[in-house]
Write a structure and sequence with these properties.
The protein is mainly α. The protein contains 20 helices and 2 strands. 54% of the residues are buried.
Length: 479
């Protein structure tokens, strides 16, 4: 049978000519391999971003950082993500999903090694920025590698399942920090934290060479025979089904789309402009809270718990404070994992839009509870901070943190999917960079209550914008 779109083959449930029922999973071994290799990118992001919050006090002491320099270190990775999502992620529309899937991991490994031997602040900032650009490229690329290779009926679960590794990475980052500080209670322990990621990253890098190019992208480029071979590679199973792949010469609209992707299309075309606003503005508002709370949870917890060693002078005091913050953060970060697991179960049943709106409202409630801790006493302040941050982490991963990522990779047409998703991720990281840089300054200037109250407002605004520009992408084929 001849089909026009590669996903017509991907969506088929294998039925053998003799009527034999399917005795293997619907997804092939290659589809699962692609999923695992894409999941690894989100794992590394969660690990590096959240581990940076724990490495920051040690880096600050080693290089004698000022308050502004602390902010630069905290935001360097996120600024790299901002640049990488657009500058590198968009290249997947031109050079292919597979090429950028491999290149981003090579870049990640290179800058991890540079960071581990960094002699000064300048090189540290450069390395963290480089790591961020690689992780930024992964935002649109990994999403497309998954969504263009699996059936639409399971796309939401699979993409968010991969995204859940961000939470696993965050928890692992806390665990790595704790173990490193126990085994190497020294000032340069932060270098070993980052170096731990090199070996698994190298394995992922080598594994990505084994995956085929996206047949959807090849068809958009008019490379029909290559698309047919890529589909056969992707759908290889025993017994083989389909036995052959024949695609029509041209997908509808492809001739025009092969001419190239124009950035102006994201803003000048009415339909695409709505997609761009829907994909980027709620994500920006979500990142204001998620990264501010995520990176600086250790700081807020340590001050609330009141058990840190104030004005730490010795390295042992600094390590003690870092261990205290790491353990508290790990407990709260567990709710990130619970939230994303709920998102995986519910996103294809309830839909992206409703979960995102509900999640934004829940985030606002959690932040309001945490803010109210300043007016409580008798131990209730600690309870309210933990309860508020836990509710926030649960609701952000059930709702906007997961759904914004999913929507950005689904809502745009194939011809500008990487460009659109890359722009959305970059715009979102403007919020992440801003909050990472300004959070410590605002904490000192206006206090915890005012800062958390401001994030309550941005969360509610995220719910409003999501509903106003809603485009439900559940079950849509990636045309």
């Amino acid at each position: 049978m001849t089909y026009e779109h590669p996903h017509d083959y991907i969506e088929e449930t294998p039925i053998w000519p003799d009527g034999t029922s399917l005795d293997t999973p619907v997804l092939t071994g290659m589809q699962w391999r692609i999923w695992w290799l894409a999941s690894a990118g989100k794992f590394f992001e969660g690990m590096v971003v959240f581990m940076t919050g724990l490495a920051l006090p040690l880096i600050g002491r080693e290089f004698n950082l000022t308050a502004i320099e602390h902010g630069l270190v905290a935001s360097a990775v996120l600024f790299g993500v901002l640049i990488g999502a657009t500058a590198l992620g968009g290249l997947a529309d031109h050079y292919g999903r597979r090429a950028m899937f491999i290149a981003e991991m090579a870049l990640f490994i290179l800058f991890l090694l540079v960071l581990a031997v960094s002699p000064n602040l300048s090189v540290t900032l450069l390395a963290l920025f480089g790591i961020g650009t690689a992780l930024g490229c992964d935002y649109p690329t990994a999403h497309m590698v998954i969504s263009e290779s699996i059936p639409a009926r399971s796309r939401g679960r699979m993409v968010l399942g991969a995204f859940s590794f961000q939470a696993i990475g965050a928890i692992s980052g806390c665990g790595i920090a704790v173990l490193t500080l126990i085994w190497f209670p020294e000032l340069n322990a932060w270098r070993w934290m980052y170096l731990v990621a090199v070996i698994p990253a190298l394995l992922v890098f080598l594994g990505r060479f084994t995956v085929p190019e996206s047949a959807v992208w090849l068809m958009v480029k008019g490379r029909v025979q290559e698309a047919e071979k890529a589909l056969l590679h992707l759908l290889r199973r025993d017994p083989q089904y389909p036995s052959s792949v024949v695609l029509k010469t041209l997908m509808e609209g492809t001739a025009r789309e092969r001419e190239g992707v124009s950035w102006t299309k994201l803003f000048t075309d009415k339909t695409t402009r709505r997609m761009t606003i829907f994909a980027s503005v709620p994500w920006f508002l979500q990142d204001l809270g998620t990264y501010g709370i995520g990176i600086f949870t250790p700081v807020v917890l340590a001050s609330t718990l009141g058990s840190e060693r104030r004005n730490a002078v010795s390295v042992s005091d600094l390590v003690y404070n870092d261990l205290l913050a790491a353990k508290g953060s790990a407990a709260i970060d567990m709710l990130l994992l619970v939230g994303i697991l709920l998102a995986v179960l519910l996103t294809d049943r309830i839909g992206r839009v409703r979960l995102q709106v509900f999640g934004f409202i829940g985030c606002a409630a959690g932040l309001a509870i945490a803010a109210s801790s300043s007016f409580a006493g008798g131990g209730w302040d600690v309870v309210l901070v933990f309860a508020g941050f836990m509710l926030f982490n649960l609701m952000t991963n059930l709702g906007p943190n997961a759904q914004t990522y999913l929507i950005a990779g689904e809502v745009f047409p194939a011809s500008c999917r990487a460009t659109g998703a890359g722009f959305a991720a970059s715009f979102a990281k403007l919020g992440a960079v801003s909050t990472a840089f300004l959070f410590p300054i605002l904490l000192a200037d206006i206090g915890t209550v005012a800062l958390l109250s401001g994030l309550v407002v941005t969360s509610l605004l995220g719910a409003v914008v999501t509903w106003m520009f809603r485009i439900e992408t559940r079950g849509r084929r990636p045309d």
